[in-house]
Amino acid sequence: MVGGLWHLTTNRANSASNSVWYGKEATRNYDTGMPTYGYITSKSISLLGTNSPKLTFNTWYSTETPDVSYDIKRVQITTNNGVSWQNLKTISGKQAVWYQESISLSSYIGKTIKIRFYFNSVDRMYNNYEGWYIDDIRITK
């Protein structure tokens, strides 16, 4: 499931030729003139029979502030098909190089989960940065 400005792009990629990006192709930023937010959500993933599951992904971002108050970037998880979401990680700052994040999912062994990447600009100001890219998303079991 996709909401907001998330989409597949060839602008930047850590591997192969594309990644998912929160931004607008025409302007290469996420400035819509209004506050903007959106998410990209995985399909259901069973962690039944896993020992030490881990979520890894590569990320590149250029957003407003090193603070977590604006241009919020969160990795979230649900165990109830999206009725409620828990934050696994809040990402902040300006990181204009690709790097790999790794998050333990051991607390969710035996459950069916969905993972969501959530972005929120919070306000309509200072949204002329390039945005947030995600690539090489993997769950190892």
Describe the structure in your own words.
The structure is a single chain. The protein has 141 residues and is an all-beta fold. It has a single domain (2-140), classed as Galactose-binding domain-like (Jelly Rolls, Sandwich). The protein has no helices and eleven strands. The protein has strands at 2-3, 6-9, 19-22, 37-41, 45-46, 54-62, 72-78, 86-91, 95-104, 112-120, 131-140. The strands form two sheets. Strands 1, 4, 5, 7, 8 and 10 form a six-stranded antiparallel beta sheet that branches. Strands 2-3-11-6-9 form a five-stranded antiparallel beta sheet, with no helix packed on it. β7 and β8 form a beta hairpin. It is globular.
Annotate the secondary structure layout:
Elements: E1 2-3, E2 6-9, E3 19-22, E4 37-41, E5 45-46, E6 54-62, E7 72-78, E8 86-91, E9 95-104, E10 112-120, E11 131-140
Antiparallel strand pairs: 1-4, 2-3, 3-11, 4-10, 5-10, 6-9, 6-11, 7-8, 7-10
